[in-house]
Amino acid sequence: MRTDTGQVFRLEDYRPSDYLIPQTDLSFILSPDSTLVTATLTIRRRDPGARNAPLVLDGDGLQLRGIRLDGKPLSQDDYSATPDKLVLHNPPADFTLTLETDIAPSKNTALMGLYRSNGVYCTQCEAEGFRRITYFLDRPDVLSVYTVRIQADRAEVPLLLSNGNPVEKGDLADGRHFAVWHDPFPKPSYLFALVAGDLGVVSDSFTTASGRAVDLGIYVEHGKEPLAAYAMDALKRSMKWDEEAFGREYDLDVFNIVAVSDFNMGAMENKGLNIFNDKYVLADEDTASDTDFANIEAIIAHEYFHNWTGNRITCRDWFQLCLKEGLTVFRDHEFSADQRSRAVKRIAEVRTLRAHQFPEDQGPLAHPVRPRRYREINNFYTATVYEKGSEVVRMLRTILGADDFRKGMDLYFERHDGEAATIEDFLKAFEDTSGRDLSQFALWYHQAGTPNLTVTAEHDAEAETFTLQIEQSVPPTPSESRKRLMHIPVQFGLVGSDGRDLAYAEAEGASVEGGVIHLRKRRHSVRFSGVRERPAVSLNRGFSAPVTLSVEQRAEDQFFLARHDSDAFSRWQAFNTVMTEALMAASRRILDDREPDFSPAIAELAGAVAEDKGLEEAFRALALTPPGEADIAREIGGNIDPDAIFAAREALIRFIAEANRDLFAGIYANLKDGGPFSPDAASAGRRALRNLLLDYLSALPGGVDLASRHFASATNMTDRAAALTGLTHRHQAAAQAIEALSAFEKTYGKDALVMDKWFAIQAAAPGAGTVDAVKRLAAHPSFSLANPNRLRSLFGTFFSGNQTGFHRADGAGYVLFADTILGIEKRNPQVAARLATGLRSWRSLEPKRQELARKALVSIASTKGLSADLSDIIERTLA
Ligand code: TRP
Ligand code: ZN
């Protein structure tokens, strides 16, 4: 474990390396406890005229076993080697360096570098894992052409994979064999990959637009091949889509994907050899939910799209991470929007952004999309870099229009192919193609914090003008107290009483083009003339900018927009706002010992949306979903009492369900799946609506029987998991809930990925008893502290997804938090640090919980010898 040294890396300190490594030859002689790695590096001084500088290579926990320069052993005086550094004091300008290291994949529990997962050798090198394999210039701006030779026992390890194209393989004495791979595309070390083991394969092929045939392979555990069919289909659709939407073709003869069980993140885009968390590959109707199918499609696409945005053009340094991640998320969002329903996809994206990025941006871990400093880069694979990074690219397209956006992308690809680029390079391509000045827009990359827009509206019937007063403010965030004014593109509509957008004669006070108001100043008074009737104003349609809105508006306007706005996102938003406001009021009343009193108009609206056949089922499901407890807490902002919020939410669900009981029951009955299962968006939407109605109906008397029947008759995992959730969250003590849990366990006890759902559903159960349930579940035979998916489903769900259970008033959840995270850190600091973000919003809690949470954080902070990963998160959280 790399312990914290307190070292801070700063963007302004960037300078190119003194040496280049144009060629890298690696040889691996694989064995679990002692793998011999021989690296033969062709090294060249960047500036041959410069006087010689020492060569400093990165390492992490390495032991040097041999070193030769141009084939000759070096003397002790020529170099110095420590586990984390190799220095050649006085190297020539051009030479070959041969390094031998001996590593132990079986002892690698951090899952960075070369490790073993279920007996399979595999690697994870992003961001700084390559230095756990051999000494190297382990930084993304050092691009090298790799040739990799792998040797292992033939019977035990029949499959030998690396990046690029296969060039040679053969048998050796003593039952051993080897394979050689060559990747012609220069790449940074973080994209290196090796997989070796005994796996099954699903093969297919894809012919690119220019006629190149590509062999596709998805490698999974023997017997699981049928579960990779959906992933293969998603891969072929991704390859086709990137040709059509971005003009990007694949470039090697093979494209391989390997699914492994132990993986710190979702998946990794290694050149020609993507490695996936098996959760994002394996699926069939019996074991995977519709959300799983959608995630598989999105992540397969994401990693594939990295081939151009990330691999062919990579990042100059890790501060530029959003250059590849934000852009690639934008690309996978667009792909999913085209494959499914654009409106539904957009709503889902915004829900995710608000659930993950907004609290990050509004708390102690806030940072710009392109950070300026970090202590541990692993902690910057965040919702801000990924999700907000994608929103920034989306705004760029809104501002430029689709055509100029595409021209800018084309220029970016053409200009920087084969290079390690920066955000400035990216923006310059769009400035050059469009002729626009994007310097104010660039602040979206540089300033942290969620901008807020305060809006008031006034209609002058006599003058026939409608005026919007809009003021922007960006709140202070850690180490950025003063903010500059941003360029915020706000898509809007003025909705008339017939539900149509009103035409207006002229708009003054801001540049308004194509239904978008461009805010650039602190205040704009935007006056529309020729507006005869008072419109309902629909703002931030399609969520055109990642901001919060404080709009002074009549309550009935929201109800009206929820039924009539022509923009589906805004219609969803209006209903969501109606519910959020009702829930905030209800939770205040509960804290005052009063009963919530909801307006019947909410129940009517819910009924009208539920039965509106003109709306997609998936949309109706999203619209009817009440804001989550964390969403409500975020709107309230501070002094949070999770129990009051929970009670308010349950009361609203019962109120809507009681008023619509027969209607909901009727729609529910009509939505039952007929015919064979299909994971397509329309079928998934039907299931989503039916399961959402189940959630309402299960809150009524008799709900336990309905949920229990739903569970027993389920023919797919989506329905089964929804019913199990309803039973265990609303009827924990009922015999039917206990029976369903044990039936599920009996059926799926051997299937780790399905058991993750069983753990997660129980970890999310509301109430004070869940702390003990989680402790009990941690001792379950299907649980393992060594597997990140298990940790995320049990502890991740509990710490980040259970408001009443984790934030139990006596602080027992926080004690479990500290103990668990310190235990996990010893094996896997990266996953421990991520789990530790579960307390990032501790300052919004009411004072008693706040103090108990602080104590738990301090108890971690005062532990000796913390990892860089964990101490970075905890210290920033407490600062
Ligand atoms: N680049 C990966 C992605 O596509 C992220 C990733 C996978 C990662 N594994 C990792 C990042 C391990 C850090 C550590 O998003
Ligand atoms: Zn990515």
CATH architecture of the domain at 1-198: Sandwich
Number of strands: 33
Please count the helical segments: 27
Query: What is the chains' assembly state?
Result: single chain
* Assigned CATH class of the domain at 1-198: Mainly Beta
Strand line-up of the largest beta sheet: 6-5-9-3-2-12-15-14
| Morphology call | globular
Bound molecules: tryptophan, zinc ion
Within CATH, the superfamily of the domain at 1-198 carries the name tricorn interacting facor f3 domain
Q: Roughly what is the average pLDDT, rounded to an integer?
A: 98
CATH topology of the domain at 1-198: Immunoglobulin-like
Given as residue ranges, the uncertain stretches (5+ residues, pLDDT < 50) are: none
> Quick one: biggest sheet?
8 strands, mixed
Helix content: 40-55%
Structural category is: alpha+beta
Distance between the termini: 24 Å
Structure notes:
The longest helix is centred in the middle third of the chain and has 24 residues, at 568-591. The protein is globular. The chain is α+β, with helices and mostly antiparallel strands and 879 residues long. Among the domains are: 1-198, tricorn interacting facor f3 domain (Immunoglobulin-like); 314-446, Neutral Protease Domain 2 (Neutral Protease, domain 2), CATH 1.10.390.10; 452-545, Aminopeptidase N, middle-beta domain (Immunoglobulin-like, Sandwich); 749-879, Zincin-like fold. The protein is built from 27 helices and 33 strands. It binds tryptophan and zinc ion. Tryptophan binds next to strand 20 and helix 2. Residues 124, 126-127, 264-265, 267-269, 302-303, 325, 378, 381 line the site of tryptophan.
